[in-house]
Each structure stands twice: as structure tokens, then as C-alpha cells.
Amino acid sequence: MSDMSDTLFSVAEQVVLVSGGSRGIGLALARGFAQRGARVWITGRNADTLQAAAASLSGGAHAVRSLVCDVTVATQNQAVVETIVRECGRLDTLVNVAGVNIRQPAVNYSEEQFDYVMNINLRGAFFMAQAVGRAMLAQGHGSVINIDSLNSGGPLKNVTPYAMSKCGMNGMTRSLAIEWGPRGVRVNGLAPGFILTDLTQKLWSDPTMQTWNTANCPLGRLGVPDDLIGTAVFLASHAAGFLTGQTIYVDGGMLAGRVWPIPGDGGQ
Ligand code: NDP
Predict the structure, then answer these.
(1) Phi, psi (5° rounding) for residue 71?
(2) Ligand 1, from 40, 45, 96, 164: best to mutate by most atoms within 8 Å of Cβ?
(3) Who is most buried in 32, 207, 237, 254, counting CB within 10 A?
(4) Contact criterion met (CB below 8 Å) for 224 and 196
């Protein structure tokens, strides 16, 4: 079989919605799908950012289209799905990316700050998945990819509500996989490790943090959004046709175990 005829990992002509696709990880994943011939839609809260993002993704087989949508408003999620299905006839893949974080000790969290994080990361992710799931169940196929975090596998200090939201998302991935699998809809998670984006730029500009990461990440570097494209494309493709209810940690090996300064190995 020549490379050209192997469609196992193909996402060409798939209709893909990237919720939270205007910046960072979502933008990179939207580009990854668009460059492989998918018909990509991106959403976010800011029309200007979205339009600039969509324009920056031009050049693929299909123009990338954008719609303003705040995931915390269920009716907006439903309207986005209805628009895509009306325009494209179906919706094959959801990449559920929209997320925020507030880093501070748990004892300092206000109710408003807690609700802000949970409303977007967990409640919003659920109602986006619900709107998309309705369309996918009706058409009898689809793939949902929830952007989780290494926090669901090993929480970090000073991000308790964020870690709680991602643990909730991890459970949602498995629950929806069970509910929707018999009707042809797969639901998986992609959990990034430390990735340089707007969300994390300030944190990783601290040399102490950089030194810690280099010493503790088995692959010895920070991730970039493009590191996640391969796993997302795989999860959306036929290659993952018997894979559901799983979360893949793309974290440079961070959760595999502990790197320790054992004497005598010269750090090797
Ligand atoms: P960015 O801040 O760079 O991007 C966040 C995206 O989500 C933007 O497109 C933003 O658009 C959108 N968004 C935020 N709130 C909403 C909302 N209420 N409705 C719709 N869209 C929204 O973050 P990252 O790219 O770093 O993170 C993306 C995802 O990856 C998040 O879920 C995050 O938890 C996860 N993640 C990130 C890691 C990292 O190291 N960067 C590690 C592990 C997981 P706008 O603001 O215009 O609405």
C-alpha cells in the first residue's frame, strides 16, 4: 500500500469544531486539522480574535470558519452546532478545548473565581459536548476529544478548582463514552502536560520553573501546541475506531514517574 492510498489516519473532509480555537492549543489543533483537508470551524468569545485566527489559517483545502460562542451559554453551543450541521450537513469531530485557570492557594479562592473556572472548564465543556452529541447521535457517528490536563492524573499545587474541573472532565469522558458508544459516537480525552501558551507564558518565564521542568520532565523540555496535533488527529481518525473512554496524556512523560537525583549516574 502506498502512502497516498492509506487513509487510516486521514481526517480529510471531516467537519471539525474546535471550541476555544482562537488561541493557543485550540488554534494549533484547528491548523492541524485544516492542513489535513478537514472543514474546520473555530469558536471563542471574541469576534476580532476569532476572525484574525481564521484568517491566519487560510490556505488549506477549505476556508476555516469562525463563530462567536461562550461555552457557558448552552443556547449558544446549540446554535453553533445547528449552524454547522445546516452548512455542512454533519459534524464529525468536536475538539472541546475552551478552558481557563486561576492560580492561587485554595484558601484564597472567592466563590466568583471558583464558579468562573468550573463554569467554563466543566459545565461549559459538558453543555458543548451535549449540543454536539445530540447531532452526532442523530447522524449515528462522531468523535469527541476533550482537552483534559495532566492535573487529572496528578494535581499541581495552587490550582485546586482547575484540577477539580479536569478530574470532572476525565469522568465525563468515560461517562459519555459509555452512553454514546452503542450509537457510534466515541469520546476520548487528550491531556496535555506543560505547554507554552497565553495561559502559561507568564508562569514559564520564571527561570526557577524552567529549571524544575527541565530536571523533572523525562523528555526534558516544555511542550508546544503543535506537539498535540498528532494525538488529536489520531483520535479523530479511523485509526482510533475501536478507542473510546480513554484519556491520552501528552506530557513529555511527566506522569510516568519521578525523576530523582540518584547519586552515581551522572544524571544519565
Ligand atoms: P489559551 O488561554 O491560550 O486559550 C484558551 C482558549 O479558550 C481561547 O481560544 C479562548 O478564547 C477560549 N475560551 C476561554 N473561555 C471561553 C469560553 N467561556 N467560551 C469559549 N471559549 C473560551 O489557553 P491554552 O491554549 O493554554 O489552553 C487550552 C486548553 O488546554 C484549556 O482547556 C486548558 O485547560 C488546556 N490545557 C492547557 C495546558 C497548557 O499548559 N497550556 C496544559 C493542560 C491543559 P476567548 O478568550 O477569546 O474566548
Answers:
(1) -60, -15
(2) 45
(3) 32
(4) yes
Residue 204 lies in a domain: yes
Q: Report the domain count for the chain.
A: 1
Atom of ligand 1 nearest to the CA of 223: 40
Q: DSSP letters of 25-83?
A: HHHHHHHHHHHTT-EEEEEES-HHHHHHHHHHTTTSSS--EEEE--TT-HHHHHHHHHH
Model pTM greater than 0.90? yes
Q: Find, among 224, 190, 171, 9, the residue nearest to 94 by Cα.
A: 190
CB atoms within 10 A of CB 146: 25
**Most distant CA pair in the chain, distance:** 64
84-138: pLDDT as tens digits: 999 999 999 999 999 999 999 999 999 999 999 999 999 999 999 999 999 999 9
For the purposes of burial, counting CB atoms within 10 Å of the CB of 124, is it exposed (0-12), middle (13-18) or buried (19 or more)? buried
Sheet strand arrangement including 185-192: 65-68, 39-44, 15-19, 93-96, 142-147, 185-192, 247-250
> Domain range for residue 141?
15-249
CATH number where 110 lies: 3.40.50.720
Residue nearest to atom 18 of ligand 1 (CA): 70
* Distance in angstroms (rounded) separating the CA atoms of residues 74 and 124: 8
pLDDT, one tens digit per residue, over 17-76 is 999 999 999 999 999 999 999 999 999 999 999 999 999 998 899 999 999 999 999 999
Specify if 257 maps to a domain.
Answer: no
